[in-house]
Amino acid sequence: MTLPSVRLGRSEDASACAAILNAWIDGTEWMPRVHARSDVDRHYRAFVFQRRKVWVAGDPPEGFLALDDAAGVVTALYAQAPGRGVGKALLDQAKAGRNALSLWTFVANGRARQFYAREGFAEVEETVGDNEEGLPDVRLLWERWPIRRATIEDAGICARIVNDWIDRTDWMPRVHPPKEIGAQVLEALPKREIFLIGEPVEGYLSLNPKTGQVGALYLDNTGQGMGKALMDRAKEGRDFLQLRTAEPNRAAQRFYAREGFKEVQRIPVGSDGLPELHMEWRA
User: Fold this and answer.
1) Which domain CATH number covers 238?
2) Are residues 157 and 130 located together in one domain of the fold?
3) Has residue 1 been placed in a domain?
4) Are 101 and 142 in contact (CB under 8 A)?
5) Residue 70 and which of 186, 196, 229, 271 are 20 to 30 A apart at CA?
6) Is 4 helix (H, G, I), strand (E, B) or coil?
7) Helices (H), 96-212
8) CB-based burial of residue 220 (10 Å sphere; 0-12 exposed, 13-18 middle, 19+ buried)?
9) What distances in angstroms separate CA 123 from CA 127, 197, 215, 256, one per listed residue?
10) In terms of domains, do 43 and 110 share one?
11) Domain boundary, last residue among 107, 126, 143
12) Could you tell me which of 4, 23, 2, 1 has the C-alpha nearest to residue 61?
């Protein structure tokens, strides 16, 4: 079986994609018809293909995926003939270059939930019907690397990551011995939101939830997108973050600038005896 190629949708694909959705609604017993077929078609032409990134499989389309690109939310994924790999091909395209995707699907849609589970999505939230159809639904999240909150048992992992970073960074002085670093992490854990990434763990971010201060962001290996994934998690639900970074750490400063942080102050001598930059991010 040859899969149709995936390409960016064009405005002339809008009605074909709306027809795929309409056919799914008509063929799904538990799905109410909330909007007339003509209204669905109009919505796809006037809104979806104007405001969303749409990927289609085949020409004419045999399936499509609509994506809120800025938010990383899949707003629609439908195929004419499920089980042929079209949905996976479209989802793989949406995942490319991203660290996370989320979406909602109906609780009753067992086939879709099984598909998303195979594709690495976890069910993270459920409602009793907070949608125009009035049907219970569930939010799913895919992350390229698993991210979780740290527990007291993770203190040694975090300390190891920090100590390894100090040891391989030639401009960073060893101010505190390894055991003291471990004690500092253990003391901070109950007071901070600490997120670990990877399985096994390859990095972590520490956040003061009261002040929005990112107190630590360390990785075993940079350049893979893990730092951005952790920073995206720290930004969730917030409109302000702040941090300090050592002036010699040019790579970190470039990363924070890409993430929208602005330099607001220079500190001649920081806690490690090095000059520091105070940087802030606002949503």
Assistant:
1) 3.40.630.30
2) no
3) no
4) yes
5) 196
6) coil
7) 110-118, 155-168, 178-188
8) middle
9) 12, 18, 30, 31
10) yes
11) 143
12) 4
> Using an 8 Å Cβ cutoff, are 77 and 65 in contact?
yes
Alpha-carbon span 32 to 212, nearest angstrom: 44
- Count: domains in the chain: 2
Model pLDDT for residues 32-52, shown as the tens digit of each residue: 999 999 999 999 999 999 999
Task: Give yes or no for a cis peptide into 4 (omega within 30° of 0).
Answer: no
Range of the domain at 122: 6-143
Residue 60, preceding bond cis, omega within 30 degrees?
yes
36 and 161 both lie in a single domain: no
- Residue among 138, 68, 133 at smallest CA distance from 101: 68
Same domain (yes/no): 264, 167: yes
Residue range 179-233, pLDDT digits in tens: 999 999 999 999 999 999 998 999 999 999 999 999 999 999 998 899 999 999 9
